[in-house]
Design goal:
There is one protein chain. The chain has about 325 residues and is mostly beta strands. It has one domain. It is about 10% helix and about 45% strand. The chain has 4 helices and 18 strands. Strands 1, 2, 3, 4, 5, 6, 9, 10, 11, 13, 14, 17 and 18 form a 13-stranded mixed beta sheet that branches. A hairpin with a 5-residue loop joins strand 7 and strand 8. The longest helix has 13 residues.
Length: about 325
């Protein structure tokens, strides 16, 4: 059992599920020493959940760190108070809270990762069309996100306790503005894979995608979608809000630098249910060529988030579908 378990941990490390740089004796991963600060199984579960590549990529997906072109143009049903040209989402602090639940039978564990995210949305805009200079508008924000990581027990070794559990699946990440400013909500996402499969999600934290390379270890779940570089992938998102203005919905995906994208999704349908608007957006994108584990993030914002200079007008909702490029 210990030999096969070590092989499985090695496979996980090779595909990037564990933190980069783990090796047998460095004290930071599977091997002869527990990770630094980890003294029991509960701490080990939290450590590996927090350092899961999909969990870590959440921050990369939804952080801009530069004020980039808007890509949204000017549209909507009423006049805007500002004309934005560039914007960036700057995260200043992330507080993580991890909660472990051992399922009956003591063979499956779920670690919930809650994040409190604070930062500033910076918008470079003109107040009037005739302005010759730009104004920098800064909107402080407080977002929250949740994601679950599933572990399966493979041993009960009291000495090498940090090797007793193996991560086998992840939920989607569900994020957005903390109440009471949560005025927009993603309610459904569909991803159409190049192989003809469709992943439909209406409950992101309870939709689990299995690590395909460990598929025999968890039955009853779809695999994390896998793409080759350059393959075309279609994604649809359903968004609900009370705003008569067309919401702004973007797709975030890719690897940092020139392979990271933030692109507008196209509105394909709209239904007004007594002042509550249900809108469907769509985007086809090509997988980047950088291999690894990432999140395809749907990022929905009310129009006033970017087109109003009131610094309190900020409301977003975002889901992230994990994917692998090989």
């Amino acid at each position: 059992m210990k030999k096969s378990l070590a092989v499985m941990w090695t496979a996980v490390a090779l595909v990037g599920l564990m933190i980069v740089g783990c090796n047998k004796n460095d004290g930071t991963g599977p091997g002869d020493q527990a990770p630094s600060g980890v003294t029991n199984e509960q701490q080990a579960l939290k450590y590996y959940a927090e350092n899961d590549e999909f969990v870590k990529n959440d921050d990369e997906t939804y952080t801009d760190n530069t004020v980039d072109p808007i890509e949204y143009g000017t549209f909507g049903k009423i006049d805007a108070s500002i004309i934005p040209f560039r914007f960036g989402r700057f995260v200043t602090s992330v507080t993580r809270t991890l909660t472990t639940t051992i399922q009956p039978g003591d063979s499956v564990a779920i670690v919930r990762v809650d994040k409190d995210i604070f930062g500033t949305l910076k918008i470079l805009a003109k107040v009037n069309v005739t302005d010759t200079a730009f104004t920098l508008i800064q909107k402080p924000f407080h977002d929250k996100s949740t994601r679950n990581v599933v572990f399966k027990r493979f041993d009960r070794d009291p000495v090498r306790f940090w090797l007793n559990w193996l991560p086998v699946a992840t939920s989607l990440v569900d994020g957005g503005t903390a109440p009471p400013n949560d005025k927009i909500d993603i309610t459904k996402v569909q991803l159409f894979t190049p192989g003809g499969d469709t992943i439909t999600v209406t409950d992101p934290n309870n939709t689990y995608l299995r690590y395909k390379w460990l598929r025999r270890l968890l039955n009853g779940a779809k695999d994390v979608p896998e793409f080759m570089g350059g393959q075309a992938v279609k994604l649809q998102a359903t968004v609900v809000s009370a705003s008569a203005d067309t919401d702004l919905v973007a797709l975030r995906y890719g690897f940092k630098g020139i392979q990271k994208r933030r692109t507008l999704m196209t509105l394909v349908s709209e239904v007004n249910n007594g002042g509550v608007y249900t809108r469907v957006y769509e985007k086809t994108w090509n997988a980047h060529f950088h291999q690894g584990l990432f999140n395809a993030g749907v990022d929905a914002a009310t129009k006033e988030t970017l087109f109003d200079n009131d610094t309190t007008k900020y409301s977003v909702s975002w889901w992230g579908i994990p994917y692998r490029v090989f």
